[in-house]
Amino acid sequence: MYKSLLRPALFKFDPEEVHYFTFNFLKRFCRIPGALSFLKAKYEVKDARLEREVFGLKFKNPVGLAAGFDKDAKLYNELSALGFGFIEVGTVTPKPQPGNEKQRLFRLKEDSAIINRMGFNNHGVEEMVERLKKNKNVLIGGNIGKNKITPNENAVDDYVYSFEALFDHVNYFVVNVSSPNTPNLRELQDKEPLKNLLNTLQKKNELKPSPKPILLKIAPDLTDEQLMDIIEIVQETKIAGLIATNTTISRDGLVSENKNEMGGLSGKPLTSRSTEVIRFLSEKSGKTFPIIGVGGIHSADDAIEKLEAGASLIQLYTGFVYEGPALIKEINKKILQKGL
């Protein structure tokens, strides 16, 4: 029904406006008595064989929602009812910021892809905290970034601020230094700035009575040499693991009219590269840390490839937009079928 009826209608309108419309619709729908139970019955796959214990956390299934969809933690309960095993909120910054000028979100229908240059638009970490205080049982990841106006030499302060603010309200953290839409942000992926940032957060983490897993989200555009540096950094800083990968700045093989829009590309064109990165990291590290695989998952087979390449968990974003919530159920059923 989603792909045959809803998606063609929604795709006639501006993608950002459609995003807000569907958010509001799902929010209102779930206020109807029994609506959440209806969604869970339709989309959730309950089976103990789907459960995963990764970096000390228990996931009811390995299929999560990637950051960027629920930037301000407005809909995590409703989205969880669609069958996701965990929800990653953000990217959030210490202060609210509007993001880049519109239009900043583009569908590439012929490529089953999206280009975004949102620019970490969000309402700030304090507002997110207030929403997360109402969470009862959804496993939440907090994806943190820096404000656009914060110079790179002070970026650590932004990450520490959000880390401290969110600590009691998320299950794990993700350090986002790989978005292409905040000026100079990717410079923080360089070896020394990245080690400094992660070591600082780890020191803060170790002071807590119960430290939380900290993960690093990396770009798919890194060279093999840079990926080897990432492995070394993970092992040196003792962070919990990686998320591979964020959006790409590559435009190879695209055919859509708006293929040259600036921003990060996600969707099917990223499928192979993100899997290559996962396999490289898993093999070269000797599987010494977990990887959450994300990028171009548009089918159950795509998800299985990520898991077989070395991912412990996976996340959806663009595939969820194009394929609808049935994709979550299809992936979980395929995992059971494959015995993974």
Q: Please state how the strands of the largest beta sheet are arranged side by side.
A: 3-4-7-8-9-10-12-13
Mean pLDDT: 96
Helix content: 25-40%
Give unreliable regions as ranges. Answer: none
One letter per element, helices H and strands E, the order comes to HHHEEEHEEEHEHEHEHEEHEHEHH
Oligomer: single chain
Described by strand count, sense and barrel closure, the largest sheet is: 8 strands, parallel, barrel
The count of DSSP E runs of length 2 or more, i.e. the number of strands, is 13
What is the distance, rounded to the nearest whole angstrom, between the alpha carbons of the first and last residues?
29 Å
The fold-level CATH name is TIM Barrel
**What's the architecture, going by CATH?**
Alpha-Beta Barrel
Percent strand equals 15-25%
The radius of gyration over CA amounts to 19 Å
Number of helices: 12
Total of domains: 1
Protein structure class = alpha/beta
**Quick one: CATH class?**
Alpha Beta
Query: CATH superfamily, called what?
Result: Aldolase class I
Given the C-alpha coordinates, what overall shape results? globular
